[in-house]
Automatic annotation (TrEMBL):
The keyword Aminoacyl-tRNA synthetase does not apply. This is Site-2 protease family protein. InterPro entries: Metallopeptidase_M50B. It comes from the Archaea. Keywords: Membrane, Transmembrane, Transmembrane helix. The chain crosses the membrane at residues 12-45, 66-88, 108-128, 133-154, 166-182. The keyword Manganese does not apply.
Length: 183
């Protein structure tokens, strides 16, 4: 049995390994606060997919991806960071549970959470004048924007294939949030 398969037996342990990999990749360039913000944002994004799968009658759990984990660790020495130590795998015991609507909800959940966190923290940053909240908003805006790129395993590819109007709306919202947090 492979090491990754063994690590994936316990979801909490798999999540902890993913968090450790992200921390190693970012600590030198982002510091403790930046790493904490990314971990919170990444974790809530993935847990959003997981919970949405469960609400829709499926099983969702975080799974370490060997290639993504390796890329995450390698990016610790690169100027550009690639953070994808794992993903939420969705398994439906009853295939009829995975309706069109359920697929949209599951695939959009992480991005919706990032956009909600980005907009809420931006408003709070403006009202309370707390600079760290601008950083948190920027991180969540970036995660939403990046994940909406319609390629490969990213959420954007799945949403784009299911509903181009929803994808376009979410992409524009993420772009607006990203621009507003950078101003």
């Amino acid at each position: 049995m492979s090491l990754i398969r063994e690590l994936n037996r316990n979801e909490l342990f798999a999540i902890m390994i993913g968090i450790l990999a992200v921390s190693v990749a970012l600590i030198r360039d982002f510091g403790v606060i930046g790493v904490l913000f990314v971990i919170i944002s990444f974790l809530l994004h993935e847990l959003g997919h997981r919970q949405s799968a469960r609400i829709n009658g499926c099983i969702g759990r975080f799974i370490l991806d060997p290639f993504g984990l390796l890329l995450t660790l390698i990016s610790s020495v690169l100027p550009v960071k690639f953070l994808a130590p794992g993903y939420v795998g969705v398994f439906c015991v009853n295939p009829s549970s995975l309706t069109y609507r359920a697929q949209l909800e599951i695939n959009s959940a992480g991005i919706a959470i990032n956009l909600l966190l980005a907009s809420t923290s931006l408003v709070l940053a403006l009202v309370l004048r707390i600079n760290e909240l601008f950083i948190f908003s920027l991180i969540n805006s970036w995660l939403a924007f990046f994940n909406l790129i319609p390629v490969g395993p990213l959420d954007g590819a799945k949403i784009f294939s299911l509903n181009k109007k929803l994808w376009a709306s979410a992409f524009i919202a993420s772009l607006i949030m990203l621009v507003n947090t950078m101003l």
